[in-house]
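lol ok so funny story. i was supposed to be doing the assay writeup but got distracted and ended up predicting the structure for this chain instead. priorities right. anyway since i did it might as well share w the group, maybe its usefull for someone
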Amino acid sequence: MKKSKLPNRIYQPTRYLTEYCFNPDFRILFSAVQNVKTGKWEKPQVTGEFWRLYYCHTPGAVLTYRDEAISLSRDKIYLIAPDTVFSTGNSCAFTQFYIHFLAGQPFSDFHSEVFTIQKTAILNDILTCIISGYAHESLGTFSFALYSQALLCLIFAQHADRFQIPRQFSEKLPVVLKYIEKNLHLKITNSDLAKQVNMSKSSFIAFFKRNMGEPPGNYLKSKRIQRAAALLIHTDKPIAEIAGLCGFYDRYHFSKVFLEICNISPGRFRIRNSSHNP
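and the output, tada:
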């Protein structure tokens, strides 16, 4: 029998495979399901330099923002941008899933805002896996983290226009971003990055800021901190060694920058994450 020839289009790579693939820059700091007792979520004037996601599986929680009391519904997910000042409370016990996370461009420009996200069927499926997995102790730490990341990616993807996600990147960006990822342990200057794409330093800085929304130095600092946070959580390496692996001059310099960005020292960050990731 003569084999039929498959159409050529199957073998033709699409634009999405040949162009730079945007990797969502989310760094989860804490993520957990918890049963909150009555009155134990009474927190006035809360703020922080990171994003928060709250989902309440059962009623009873209230979030107050700009003098408006919002009863947290199980039909909605709540995203709170960095530097937002809000208060929380609860009139009865409730079950809550939450994520504290850092977000790079194009999400790092959002400040002082609360976003209400309608829970769709697919978001509900992910939340069900997380909460039921927690309840039955059937979801390991690694899977829990993956589901949390998937939830964030899906929310921002479904609301791309709302979060002003760019439709495409300059073709020069992958060269620069890959160079940064591979050389975080080294001292990297703007001149080094400009050479990767054959640009002058001043033109490169303007190009990078136009495409990424922040100067290359700020982006590089954030990437170093994200790499360091992962090493603090997932390895037992001394803090001084982690500082060197992430391109910081010494432990003092690393601790200063980490505190500046995460609002917590590296040592306390490691202890806190250990308690949330048994």
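The beta strands are 26-36, 43-46, 51-56, 61-65, 68-71, 76-80, 86-90, 94-103, 114-118. The chain is about 40% helix and 20% strand.
back to the writeup now i swear
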